[in-house]
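Render this sequence as a predicted structure.
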Amino acid sequence: MGKEPRTRLEQLAGEHGLGTGDFQREFASRAEHLGAEVEVSRSAAKRWFQGGAGQPRAGARRVLETWFGEPIAVLFGPPHNETHNRPVTEQELAVSAAHESVNHAIEAASALDPSALEHLHAAAGKAATAYYITPPLEMLTDLVRLRDTIYEQLDRTHKPLQQAALYLLAGQVCGLLSSVSWDLGLVEPAEEQARAAYTYGCVIDHPSLQAWARALQVTLAFWSGFPRRAHRIATTALDTAPAGTARARLHSVNARALAMLGARGEVHSELQAASAELDRAGTDEFLDEVGGELAFDRPRRALCAGAAYVALGDGEQAEQEAAQAVSLFATIPAAQRWAAGALGAHVDLGTARALRDDLAGAQDALQPVFELPPTRRTEAIALRLHALARTLGTSRYRGATEALQLGAAIEDFTSISLSRTTGMRALPPAR
């Protein structure tokens, strides 16, 4: 194809040297291999390449996503820019080869032998850790592909133990997809993925997966402006959550919901309960063993505490907790640190200082945040900054040069945050 591609799908077809007729034949071959009774006409293929047409039905989506290894929303979106076409480095080639080897090994295990589950457990564990340091859009594609691979393996086995292991992995990946969707500002897909994760936990009676999924729902509820709903979910989940990490997370996010309701005394009690649970944490075979986004530690508890006291308007206590969160996150090696959480603590610290009329200190705390590239500007960071901007816009700060400068910097930052630049991408639904 000599012309510039109009969609990612047309771009990939061109990279594979496929004209419309070749694409039709290869699509038919891939569909037959997957056992999907679908076909594509020449005119439909042209419409797919052009973009703007409605997305194909489920069977065709499955063929396209399996064939090209990218979600349908990406395939029908714009082509990747030139940065995606740079020469592949030796390291990237090695990583790609490793992925291909694992995928082929899994496909070869038609009887779903233990090696297939081993590969999937490793991939899901790696994804939980990678969440902390990988831009959300990069995580999205990998997680959708991994989730769909798990679904395919579920279709291959009827052994109860293998099914239980796969349902646990499906719940884990759907929970990660919930977090990534929220980072991109996609609230409804995030809620659906969290519900799916909880449902998988119910299917296999797994309290830790259920508690983690409920904590995700609590977080989404209070960020969406429904603190009472968040509090109800957290309270119910705490009745059955295992001790340690699971309960520490639920108490912490519940504190944030209660802070939005103005329940100062209950916030303090919940944060104390979270600290007590962290003293018992470390032995959960699911949350602590997998780690990464599934884990919950003292830096994250301090982050929740800082955000809670910011919501209560208590600048002094918020500064203490946020400063502790910044300090605790800094002790974690960069390759293992939750980057978005650490920067969220910086925003809370800046907001706490603004509440104490220390605008110069607020500017200093926010400097690392404003340096963040657009690909890492998550929805939570953007919403924290929006809240600070509303505070700076009150009569209390009217005419202050620092407030005007901070407000302008926040406006520039959030105008190209992920939720603004991503648009309403669709995720293939959980099942």
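Summary. The longest helix spans residues 160-183. DSSP finds 22 helices and no strands in the chain.
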